[in-house]
Amino acid sequence: MGRRLRGILFALPGALLAAAGALALPPPQAGPVRPPAIPLETGEQIWKAGCVACHGADGGGQPQNVAGFEPPATFPDFADCATSTVESDLQWRAIITNGGPARGFSRIMPAFRDLLTPRQIDLVIAHMRTMCRETAWPRGDLNLPRPMITEKAFPESETVVSGAINAQGDAGVGSTVIYERRIGAKAMWEAFVPYAFARTGGIWRAAFGDLGLGYKRALFHRTETGTIVSAGAELVAPTGSRAAGTGGASTVFEGYGAYGQILPASSFVQLHGGIELPAHPDKVPRAFYLRAAIGRTFAGGGGLGRRWTPMIEIVGDRELERGAVMECDVVPQLQIPLNRRMHILGSIALKVPAVQAAGRARQAMFYLLWDWMDGGLAAGW
Ligand code: HEC
Q1: What is the pTM of this model?
Q2: Helical spans, DSSP H, in 23-98
């Protein structure tokens, strides 16, 4: 057994020392240090020795008078599946190893880098994973980085503002606000509103695009194999402007499947395929699409620091008309966290028409993403 409990006792604030007293352990001031009174060989033992004083036996937190600090707004309840399962092991490992401030959280959460071995930290994380007792919730580890166009399989709570700027041809700027909200263990709903400025025939126009509502549900997920599969549906209403070219021709129903798979060496692949069925196929042709994103996440600080993820997407669309051909774009991109908590992320991309490219402009694309379950916009910088 590597590090000693006494190390924890030396380093931790009053709350833990009080609890250690309750466990009949010697306070650090009590002269020569004695060997640990309880072993640190299982996750549960480590939890009881180092974490219980603040987080409580079941992970729901000690009452304030026992813990001795006012809990921050983001103070976790590890038994609450809705908030604990969305966190990845990596995120927890980073906070336990380097302390709250390393990820823009409270400094009350101590760093255990010098007190626990990496193996002990993994054991305590495995113990924390037993606190949510429902297996229906897909684990945050399966929440792969969001590609620019490919829909991911993980159901999320977040707000995204995305945009595209024509890099050639007719001038145009488009943006979409997307709001996603988790429902229960496996599902989420989303709403999105596009807004576009376009110059056609020498005149600038600005208009809303077609408003959409969507639902997505995880059908299968497995942390051990790094796999998640979802199905979703969207209904797009013709609220756009036909004059400005932002839609408005027909209500469109869309059904799709999405698949995410973690690969070795922090890489991954995400696939997304669907079909678009307009209510008025005479005005908007029926179509299907296939999208694939492959990428790899890099991180500093021994894998626990800021992450950045280069990805490449291939997106293909084909109208379901006789003689129609598949149009295909290639989209290299880079996603980076903007703050220390990494719940605010940005991504930039270039969309390059590759197959049947005539009539489509090269576009610069971007998004800003805010995972609001992890805190406000001003938190964690
Ligand atoms: C002195 C009190 C204290 C001790 C001891 C303590 N923690 Fe914490 N921990 C906190 C506080 C406070 C937060 C919330 C920080 C915030 O939200 O800003 C926290 C947050 C966390 C988080 C982040 C949770 C999330 O999902 O955002 C993890 C993981 C965690 N603690 C694990 C542990 C483990 C494991 C131990 C024992 C090895 C431990 N903590 C010991 C006070 C403590």
Answers
A1: 0.88
A2: 43-50, 52-55, 64-67, 81-84, 89-98
